[in-house]
Amino acid sequence: MNKRKLLAGPYLAIVLCGTIIPLLAILYYGFTDRAGQFTLANITAVTEPENAKALGLSLLLALICTVICLLLAYPIGLLLRRTKGEKKGLIIFVLILPMWMNFLLRTMAWKALLANTGVINAILEAVGLPGINIINTPAAVVLGMVYDFLPFMILPIYNVMIKIDNSLIEAAQDLGSNGFQVLTRIILPLSVPGIISGVTMVFVPAMTTFAISNILGGGKIYLIGNIIEQDFLMGLRQTGSGLSLVIMVFILISMALINKFDKNGEGSML
Amino acid sequence: MKKFFRVLYIGLIFTFLYIPILTLIVLSFNDTKTMGVWKGFTWDWYLEIFTNAQIIEAFWNTLIIALVSAVVATVVGVAACVGIQALRHRTQQLVLQVTNIPLLNAEIVTAISLMLAFGLFGISLSMGTVLFSHITFCLPYVILNVLPKLRQSGMHIYEAALDLGASPVRAFFSVVLPDIMPGVTSGFLMAFTMSVDDFVVTYFTRGAGINTLSTLIYSQVKVGIRPSIYALSTIIFVIVLIVLIVANVLPDITAARKKGENS
Fold first, then answer.
1. Is the ipTM of this complex over 0.95?
2. B26 part of contact set with chain A, CB < 8 Å
């Protein structure tokens, strides 16, 4: 039996070298200056106006993106809840297929679609509607985020929805619940785990992206990810690490909040 | 009426998901490098794929990195799952929590942490550092797919095989492995997909001059993307589409037909 434990050895070595030591490396750089002396300057750098603004904008856009994804994905989960097993594969297939086109290219495609002289404006003009000028604005960045991360919200919600036992819903209906009560008292509480996993899977990448804001913001919109990317491109390892530690704190806070919310959600289910 | 809105809503969402893909396919046939305008139909970009050394190299890099890291992650991951099961419960929980870190962490943090660690130990960035980084972030997908299957299959059949005189290695390969194969396959495919689609980790851990398709595309964002990349992506997309149709939809259809015949 003891020999079997050894099989985990290579994996544990990779985890040590690929996950734990690198995180310690960020901690080291985040808390030292160029001479290797301890400092908090890299962490407090987040209060500099430019960085604070970028962090605030990242949190705001990630929040908007998460809410929109949830509002779009939840009805899909509801609508697909009744699909039969045979169709399940097809739906997941349709959702995952776009991911096989490189996400940077798909984001570039939105740039072409949204451009002031782009396809969408040409269509709007043709039917006599006013054009939209959202390229290189935060709105375009949010659209790109929603587009790229929507499947990450749909899949977990769909996965909990299809597991909801139909007899529970029939029982509620037999006991006189109307459609709205079935939704708010049965389906919604039971789908909380899916919602939570969807929210984390959308919020974290949206908050930390730098490619989407770079492409659809035309280099004018600075999110915290852009600042960190710039820092590393300019060789400012210490500041970049300090800011990374700050966003890690935000990731941990959001996870903790979500965990708490999850417990409450499960508590109210009983 | 209700059904009409249902179909309309799902239709709108799917349109939203597929409009950019349609755009890229159209652009791959567009006789100009400018993105916004249609200048007539051409096959030129498809022909250019075979002569553009940069694109060919990026394509092979992407494929080789994904294949090697998915294979290594699968072998190491499956072995790890067997080993993890032999650990005490507490240690198991701890290992699984650490396994989750790359999944929950922001990609940019994973990427720069690896880059900094390589720097700290004087390892210069190269193809090797990209491979190691990809293996690191691919492993959780293998483990999370394989471990539940291994737990389901239980150790009883393994022990039964041992009682019947099989060596541990033989018992694993001829009894346990076939049982957990679906988990191994989906773990491998997820690892492969994640590696192909990765941009951020490759971007920060690659050595000078090494490009995958993702980093090549990113380097062209400002100067304008070579339409032959759209052409190559269209080909990849169509191949994946065909493979997935064969793998997913055909069994469904034949199953449905059989059902129809039986009833």
1. no
2. no
